[in-house]
Structure formats: structure tokens, C-alpha cells
Amino acid sequence: MELLAAENQRLREDEKMFRLLCETSNSAFIYYNYKEDRLRTIANWDYFFDFSVTDMKDFSKLYDRVEEQYAILLREGLFIENQNRDQESFEIRLKEKGLCVEVEVNIVYDVNRKPTDKIIRFKDVTRVNAQKDELTYMAYYDIMTGLYNRNCFVRILGELLRKADQEKRTVAVMFVDFDDFRRVNDGMGIIAGDEVLQLFGQYLIGLMSDQVIISHFSTDIYCVAIYDPCGARSVETIYRVIRERLKTPFRLMDGQEVTMTVSVGVCEYPEAASGALELINCAEIVMFQAKRQGKDTIQYFDGAILEDFLQTVTIQTKLREVVFEQNFTMYYQPQYYTESERLRGVEALIRWKDDTGDSISPAVFIPIAEKNGTIVPIGNWVIEKSVQTYARWRDAYQYPMILSLNISAVQCKQKDFIESFLHIIEKYHVAAQEIELEITETILIEDFGYISGRLAELRETGVKISLDDFGTGFSSLSYLKGLPIDTLKIDKTFVDTMLTDDNTKIIIESIIYMVKRLGYETIAEGVETQEQFQYLRDLSCDIIQGYYLARPMPAEKIEELLTELMARV
Ligand code: C2E
Ligand code: CA
Ligand code: CA
User: Fold this and answer.
1) Rg, Å, the chain Cα set
2) Is residue 404 within 6 Å of ligand 1 at its C-beta?
3) Which of 366, 523, 544, when mutated, tests ligand 1's pocket best, judged by the most ligand atoms within 8 Å of its CB?
4) Which ligand is nearest to the CA of 366?
5) Across the chain, what does the average pLDDT equal?
6) Does residue 196 contact residue 183 with C-beta atoms inside 8 Å?
7) 360 lines ligand 1 (CB under 6 A)
């Protein structure tokens, strides 16, 4: 008797333990005993369902509670013993409560493979699923805008290209980059910047379709891929609607308004590239061309852009490896007074021979060096080398000359430019009055106030300032007034056509007339013929530089020239 009581006690304890386990498991169970045809629900049944089941017939109530598309799955899944299977699990969604429920069915068989017990577990996986969805979302979409992210875009683009191969269609990629986005980010803060990116992204979502895939590619870059572009999904149409949208400013949460423009580069598969990444890269390179054209514009692929780019990249790499003394030399081109045909001085012009012996024109590599910053050390080398050579000539020949040096904008803007320049000329005992610095108009466009202040400072030391390539930039005579310059160099393009084109004739005549009135000297460069020389002399242009009188030459040739000159005196 006592033994039985103890056994009962142990069973009660066990039951308590099982109940606790079940109740804290976030699940509900159905237990069915085949022999007794008895069905029980256990644990958190009420959490999932608002009805009770007492026998198999009640299962039909379950089917009513799940969203329609899961009904069949549930009906078949609950009776796997019909297929002689042991276990099954699947997910359903409850209609009213909106819960995601994992259903696990287990059947226990006896030795004759007859089912004896069945346990069905319902487990709430709503939260787990939401987290999973979010992870998938983050893997494919850009959280900020809801557009595809970069990885996903590349993958989908790859698929589109394969499809295009099969269906003999094209795929266009538009690389869309906000112009001067930094202006927003730096000027208004990154929150405002993010808001602009978000608002534009949300607008772009509306342009998406099966054939138009759009991604927020990186910070201020969006990529559009168009399958079989034509009609409403042609590049032109999409560009037009984007520009139309950008005509209206973005209104930020704090009420501020921001107007933006974009530069767009376009290329097409298979014309421009053979793979997804290559196509995107190509569109980016083309986009840079749009930026160079003054932004707020679209540029279509053309082979020359790519070639140009490749050349730039090659030169950039070569520039990094250049050994100044070995690869660079200075040439000097004489300048003469028109009236007396006396030597006035020389313009220092850099020459570059790379290791393969190819010479690369400064007109090609200087702009690249300006972009990647190597112009600063190159420019310093030019100054030092030329000033040193010039000092040697002056000491040896005692012939009064002016050394003209080309200075690029980047160089001139360096904080210590004036200081280091003065330091070099001092080192070789050259007076500031013996040097002329040639700067171009473009340098003034960027920051007129700052640069003209700088030039005035330089001019106070005694150096001459010469405005190079005059007429190729914004060519306005009105801004010349009050500019701290001494000399104006009329660009070769005017000299080239002044004898054949009446308009150029008028322009060059008025330039020389005006410039003289302003008190500056004039130099005409690129003078190649006797006729040009004579014509400029008639116009009283002060100084002449050009192949007609002398080509740029190495230092030794200038020495020969000076020896000759001294012999004549
Ligand atoms: P630039 O300052 O306008 O130099 C004049 C260019 O015209 C030189 O080309 C010169 O060789 C060329 N030239 C002179 N007379 C004639 C002529 O009668 N006919 C023709 N067809 N050409 C003539 P180069 O030496 O190729 O230099 C090209 C440009 O590269 C220069 O144009 C200048 O902007 C830049 N550059 C050259 N050396 C330096 C340098 O040391 N520093 C910087 N920052 N730029 C330089
Ligand atoms: Ca020059
Ligand atoms: Ca020039």
C-alpha cells in the first residue's frame, strides 16, 4: 500500500515536471492515442487557438483558422501515418492572429509498424521569421532607400545579361551620380544628406519594373539597369523623368529645400562590355566625362572616352614611377622683342621620356599630374632645375634675360608656394625681377578673389606675372582691369587664324590695343610664319614666341645661342 502511494507520488511529480516543461516551451501540443482513440491538447493551446479539440473530427476547425494557401499543406501534414512516415514539419500562418507557426508531427509505431501515438507540436516562430526576413532584406536591399543594394544589383544585372544573350536583346546601364553632393553633406550636415538620398531613392523605386532595376549603389550613386531599352523604358525617357523630378527641390523634414542635379553615364551590353561589373565600371567612366562637361548632363558611351581613360590610367601609373632626373628634362624656348628682334628671355617647358623611350607631351601629362597631385613635386623640380640652369647662363654670359615658368593652379594654391619659390631663387642668387610666372585664366575662374590676392603678393616680391593662353578661357577683357599681371600671352589659336579669319583679326587687334591701354605687355605665341610675325609687328605686339624664330631646345642649345649673341656684341 505504501509502495503504491510512493509510486503515485513519483508520477505526480513527473507530471508536474512535464507540464512545466510544456507550458514554458512557447508551444502547444496535441496528443493522440490510437488504441484508445483518445485526443488531448497540452500546454499553451489557448495562445494559438480559441476552440478546443477533443477528437479527430475537430481537426477541420484547424483548417479554417489558417490562411487559405496553407490549408492543404496542413491537412496532408497532419496525417503522415497514411504514408507510413515518422516525422514531418512545416510552417503555416494563422488567419486572425497573424502568427507564423511551425507544426511538427511525430508518429510512434509498434513492432508491426502500426501507429500507436501521435504528437503534434505548434510553435510560434513569428519573431524568428521576422528577424530572418530582415536579414534577407538587408542582404538584398539598401535599408536607407529600399532600392536594391550593390551586391544584389550586380547579381540581377548578371542574370539580365544572360537573358539578353538568349533573347538577343541589349541591356543599358545608367550610372547616376549627384553633382556636388558634398555641398549638402558638408554644408547642411549628413542627416540632411541622408534625407536627400532617401527621398531620391524613394522616387526611383517608382520607376522600377521587371525590366528596370534600380540600385542605391553607394553614397550618392544610383545605378539603373534597363532590359531591352525602348519606348517608356528607354534611357532617354528615364533620364527625362529623373530630370523632371529634380527640377522640384527636395523638401527636408526641417523645412529646408535642396535642389540637386545629376551626371549620368550610359553604356550598353554587349557593345561596351562583356560582364556586369565591367559594364558598371564602364558606365562610371562615361559618367566622369559628363562631369567634365560641366555636370547636370548625360553622356553616352563612345570608344574614345574609354581609350582616353585607359591612357590616363597608364600615365598615372607611370607618373608614380617616374624618376625626375632620369625621365624629365627641361627645354627652353626663346622669346624675342618684336621691334628689335632682341632675345628677351626663355620659357621653360618640361619634357618627359619614359623608360620605354616614348616621349609624352606635357599637354597630356600635366593635366593628369594636376589631378593626382604629382604636379606639386614636378612643379618644384621644374622651378629648381630651370632656376639653377638660368643662374649658370647668367653668370657665364652676363646677358640680361627673363626666365618664364609655367605654374599650375594646384601648385599656386599650395600654402607654402610663395615661400618655397623665394627660397629656391635665393639659393641660386636669382632676383625675383628675373623671373616671370605664367598662369592660365582657368586658375582665376575657380577662385578669383583668393588667387588674385595671391598673385598680388607674389608681384610685390618683384616677379612678373603673365596670363597664359589668353582667349581660350572665358575671354572677357573686362575682368583684366585691375588684375595683378604684367604680361598677357595671346594664345596660339588666335595667331593661327588671324590672317585668314576676319573675326579673329578684329579680336586680336582689339586685344592688343586694349592690353596696351591697360599697361600690360603682349606676347604672341605659336608664331610660325614670316607673315604672322610681320602682321603682329604692325600691330605693335611687344614680344614674339614661336617656331618661326626658335623652337623649344635643350639647355646646351640655348648656351650656343648665347655664345653667338655675345660674340656679336
Ligand atoms: P604653353 O604654356 O602654352 O606652352 C607653349 C606650347 O606651345 C609649348 O608646348 C610649345 O612647345 C608650343 N609652341 C611654341 N611655339 C610654337 C609654334 O610656333 N607652333 C606650335 N605648333 N607650337 C608651339 P609644349 O612644350 O608641348 O607644352 C604644352 C603645355 O604644357 C604648355 O603650354 C603648358 O601649359 C604645359 N607645360 C609645359 N611645361 C610645363 C611646366 O613645366 N609646368 C606646367 N605647369 N605646365 C607645363
Ligand atoms: Ca606657357
Ligand atoms: Ca600658352
Assistant:
1) 40
2) no
3) 366
4) 1
5) 91
6) no
7) no
Cα separation, 238 vs 246, in Å, equals: 12
Record the cell numbers describing residue 533, joined without a space: 610675325
Write out pLDDT tens, residues 337-354. 999 999 999 999 999 988
CA 443 to centroid of ligand 1, rounded, Å: 17
Q: How many CB atoms lie within 10 A of CB 163?
A: 13
d(CA 132, CA 126): 10
pLDDT band with cut points at 50, 70 and 90 for residue 266: very high
Is the distance from the beta carbon of residue 469 to the nearest atom of ligand 1 less than 6 Å? yes
The domains located in the chain, with CATH, are 2-124 (3.30.450.20), 142-312 (3.30.70.270), 321-568 (3.20.20.450)
Q: 406 CA distance to ligand 2 centroid (A)?
A: 5
Q: What are 448-497's pLDDT values in tens digits?
A: 788 888 899 999 999 999 999 887 765 566 677 778 899 999 999 999 99
333 CA to centre of ligand 1 in angstroms? 9
Tell me whether strands 402-406 and 435-440 are parallel, antiparallel or unpaired.
parallel
Query: Between helices 150-167 and 126-140, what is the axis angle to 10°?
Result: 70
CA 341 to each of CA 337, 453, 485: distance values in angstroms, whole numbers, following the listed order = 5, 35, 24
What's the 438 CA to ligand 3 centre distance in angstroms? Answer: 8
Q: How many CB atoms lie within 10 A of CB 295?
A: 14
